[in-house]
Amino acid sequence: MVQMLLCHDFYLTSKLFPRKGDAGDQIGKALNALAEEEFRLLGEYVREWNTKPKSCHIAQFVLSRVLRLPPTKILEARGMAEIFEGLIPHTQRHFNRLVGLETSTCLLDFTLTQMLVIEPEGNEGKLEYKDAKLSNVADC
Question: Which positions fall inside the U3 small nucleolar RNA-associated protein 13 C-terminal domain (predicted)?
Answer without folding.
Answer: 23-115
